[in-house]
Amino acid sequence: MPIYQFFKRKWLLRQPFPENRLKILESKVPVYRKLPQHYRETLKKRMVIFLDEKRFEGCGGLTITDQIKTVIAAYASVLILEETADYYSGLQSILVYPDDYMAPVYEEGEGGVITEGYEHRKGEYWGAGNIVLSWSDIEENLYESDDGQNLIYHEFSHLLDDRYGLTAGIDEEGKPLRDDEWTHIMAGSFRKLQRRAYERRKSALDLYGAQNPAELFSVATEAFFEKPDELHRENPDLYRMLNNFYKLDPLRWMG
Ligand SMILES: [Zn+2]
Q1: Please, what are the domains in the chain?
Q2: Weakest mean pLDDT among 17-31, 144-158, 185-199
Q3: Residues forming beta bridges with residue 131, ordered by sequence position
Q4: Nearest in space to 227 (alpha carbons), one of 214, 210, 239, 212
Q5: Ligand 1 center to residue 214 CA distance, Å?
Q6: How far does the centroid of ligand 1 lie from the alpha carbon of residue 28, in Å?
Q7: For residues 78 and 85, what is the distance between their CA atoms, to the nearest angstrom?
Q8: H/E element holding 95?
Q9: Which are the contacts of 123, defined by CB distance < 8 A and separation ≥ 6?
Q10: Looking at CB atoms within 10 Å, which of 52, 107, 166, 223 has the fewest?
């Protein structure tokens, strides 16, 4: 980390958390009310740095508001409450579209998630390291906070996967290529979800995760934070792995 960034972060953390953002947190971010007090304080610290270091860009006519920035920063910060992952340091910009039709139909590129919508901007100033989100999908998730779906958790967990190679040890068929507990449990959970999807049976995990191991990790992250009890009942080993990775135990605060 460059030295100026180190001091900038230190300085930022000494500033009071802005009143208007606190109001948005309290009224528009359901997870904030559920977090234990000490995590609320940590969340605000993570958000202050996140908001300072990431750029938000409204696309398709969307104007970025404080509410949009606060909601996205809050959920992205839940994932890094304990392990900062250097605040998603590879990520520079968050592109937000108003609606579904621009929703991320992505392919993963080096250093970030590249979307179809992003394709025609390839030659412009924005390099890799972008994330694309649809605001209407985010809002929908917010008001149904127990449906196990959360686009922000989903996309940001892809960044963590890329950063740490979390699913790199599993092939597309779900065969583990590494011999460690994490890989075995992730691979086993992936194959289990594929079977469920094939048999059209429900799961605590969104069946979309049966696409490939990277999607499994992201839908598992969504379930872990949004309906931890269901995930824990269905697949306690997977819950334990995510608990180890995030160093968080949402079972204790989501109820
Ligand atoms: Zn995904």
Answers
A1: 3-162 (1.10.472.150), 165-252 (3.40.390.10)
A2: 144-158
A3: 94
A4: 239
A5: 7
A6: 24
A7: 12
A8: strand 93-97
A9: none
A10: 107
